[in-house]
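Sequence design from tokenized structure. All designs in this work follow the same two-part layout: the structure record, then the generated sequence. An example of the structure record is given first.
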């Protein structure tokens, strides 16, 4: 039986990936290592499963990672663990370097010591804002512009350096904006869906004509699994729907799904350094036999429907003092001033 160490498995995408493996790969043992930051929830994963163990800890803790890999006889590390929100990286950038750069480096070092297979979960944001009608290719030069994307780009460069220098068995996937079940409410689709359900305004940064490839998390997870099982070692693969829509188009779908009016839309002060457009080519991954099942609008509708049907999941978060403190810090001033 193979053993996978899945870091960040109590977060949004990690939990969806663990659930996919538990359902479809019964011969794998999964060890989830998670620091349980504000974005994590233990109940994103099944409470008990014979093939699943959950350990609390920090990927940047070298001794802990060495111990875990040896004691659990890990073959493969899949690194989802990260600080992930651009707005948080603008408010509090240091922890992004600590986890996304130092943490990734620690995992690579342990993988090198034990000759493990290593897969890094990265993002299309490392390519920076995309001009014209270009679709980012895996070979494009990285041009990150936020503390979040810069820290992820640094992680990718470290992974590539361990492949080249030490022959570590690495792969990287660069996913675009994911939507779906179990996403933390700071991200735009769960934030706007739950705001709409509460009849609160939807704070649209700037003109709302920024473009994102909104991808259903299930498509991202099957893409990662495809690369783990059939990807070429040392290679990078983009994962996304392969087309992008504006934020205004995204929120129209979302409002229609939950039956709320456009009058909730508020254009507010833009995010600092806001990337105008992300767009990826997914041809390289498609050549491995993978295909996205959702177009961006379908993905947004499915995600909004999930939050609509699961208020028990998000209501306690909305009511928590930590979320309210973040919300006020991020939006109180913006919503006061109509742009
Ligand atoms: P998330 O914020 O929902 O979850 C991140 C998880 O990592 C949390 O459970 C958190 O507790 C854990 N974590 C954070 N720091 C840690 C540390 N030092 N040690 C151990 N665990 C730690 O994020 P997500 O949206 O699930 O993103 C997962 C990965 O996918 C990240 O690497 C992110 O960069 C990447 N990604 C996300 C998106 C997206 O749209 N959300 C798109 C492309 C790529
Ligand atoms: P987000 O979910 O934060 O993902 P990312 O910044 O990583 O792409 O935001 C998605 C898009 O939605 C992005 O263009 C910023 C925009 N947005 C808003 O307009 N208002 C908001 O309150 C948030 C959180 C995001």
């Amino acid at each position: 039986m193979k053993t996978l160490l899945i870091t960040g498995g109590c977060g949004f995408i990690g939990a969806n990936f663990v659930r996919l493996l538990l359902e479809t790969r019964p011969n794998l043992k999964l060890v989830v290592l998670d620091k349980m930051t504000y974005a994590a929830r233990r109940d994103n994963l099944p409470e008990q499963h014979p093939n699943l163990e959950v350990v609390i800890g920090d990927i940047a803790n070298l001794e802990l990672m060495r111990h875990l890999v040896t004691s659990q006889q890990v073959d493969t590390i899949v690194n989802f663990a990260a600080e992930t929100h651009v707005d948080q990286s603008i408010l509090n950038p240091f922890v992004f370097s600590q986890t996304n750069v130092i943490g990734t480096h620690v995992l690579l070092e342990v993988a090198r010591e034990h000759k493990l297979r290593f897969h890094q979960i990265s993002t299309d944001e490392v390519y920076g804002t995309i001009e014209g009608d270009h679709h980012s290719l895996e070979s494009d030069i990285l041009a990150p512009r936020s503390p979040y994307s810069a820290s992820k780009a640094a992680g990718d460069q470290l992974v590539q350096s361990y492949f080249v220098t030490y022959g570590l068995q690495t792969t990287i996937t660069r996913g675009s904006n994911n939507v779906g079940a179990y996403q933390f409410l700071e991200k735009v689709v769960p934030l706007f869906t739950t705001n709409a359900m509460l009849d609160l305004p939807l704070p649209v940064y700037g003109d709302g004509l920024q473009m994102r490839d909104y991808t259903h998390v299930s498509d991202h997870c099957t893409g990662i699994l495809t690369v783990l099982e059939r990807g070429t070692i040392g290679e990078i693969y983009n994962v996304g729907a392969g087309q992008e829509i504006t934020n205004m188009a995204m929120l129209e779908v979302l409002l229609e799904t939950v039956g709320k009016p456009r009058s909730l839309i508020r254009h507010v002060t833009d995010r600092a350094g806001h990337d105008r457009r992300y767009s990826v080519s997914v041809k390289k991954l498609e050549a491995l036999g993978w295909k996205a099942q959702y177009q961006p609008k379908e993905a947004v509708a499915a995600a909004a429907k999930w939050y609509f049907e699961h208020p028990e999941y998000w209501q306690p978060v909305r009511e928590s003092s930590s979320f309210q403190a973040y919300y006020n810090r991020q939006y109180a001033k913006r919503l006061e001033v109509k742009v």
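Residues 94-114 form the longest helix (21 residues). We note this feature because it recurs in several other targets discussed in the main text.
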